[in-house]
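Re: the pair you flagged

First of the two:
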Amino acid sequence: MNATDLPLFAYGTLRDREILEGVLGRAVARGDLVDARAIGWRTVYYPGNLYPALVRADEWTQGLVIAGLNQRDMARLDAFEGDQYRRGTIGIEARGGTATAQTYFPAKTIDTNAPQWTFETWTMHHRPQTIAAYRSDDFYQITENGRDQ
């Protein structure tokens, strides 16, 4: 199995099903989504943005494992994440066991002490404006051109 065959660990806005399905351009089966966490990582704000990045830390970060992704899906996800992220592998815990998944790491170094980002805070305060922005644009164009800067 190579890295592109691994499921994806999403720790940020892709945990939102509406955003995920909009980026992929298709529905995702409920059985392909599993709660998970990554030990040794902290989710922080990507500097100057409302979305997150992972940094190494003596903590853990909550996320979602997304299975059933094909090459087209990964190409769309890569384009959505843009040049601010690079895809790599990460150890995760899910369903009482450990596994390896793909995830998106920040392409630049981010201070471990950057402000913490949580999905719950983003959902409460920023999701509506994020969804509105994406609804006003074509997700296909977003995924072709990368994340809005």
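Second of the two:
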Amino acid sequence: MLGTYNKSSNNASTSEIAPLIMIVDDRPDNADLLAMMLEHQGYRTIKYYDSLHAREEVELGLVKPDFFLLDVMMPGMNGFDLTRCIRSNPRLPYIPIVLLTAMQDDKARATGLEAGADDFLNKPVNRLELAARVRSLIRIKQTNDELRRKTEENRRLNDELRFKNAQMARELGVILKQSQSS
């Protein structure tokens, strides 16, 4: 099943693009309800009812979500395995993953956390809890993204500085050689 994309009426300023949340749930009614709750909060959503298709689109870079909301129990590939695939992809930056589950046992939660999930939400999902967790993890992602951008900028500036220092040292060497020979 193709992913369906919904553009929310973004509450953020027009210069900001609302974060994109990928919802993967084999039950369309659940995915639609989650999308509606998140769009009401100003987020953009994309829904997949097939975890294998969602994985493929992410791996190919066809969709670049800012957040994953994954059902645990799905045919084909469950939420734990999809989480492992996402986390094992070196081309993907840190993207928060929240697993949705009706399971109450600690072993399932431990499995999800070991797979790389950041958090869990119980089904049925509480609208306020969903909004708070998404907001919190998006804030962490944005801070992480900004840190990565600044680190890359510092790396670039350091490389430029090293190049200019080497260039100046060569020029100084030429000047010293010329002054010694005269």
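Residues 4-146 form a domain with the Rossmann fold fold (CATH 3.40.50.2300).

-B.
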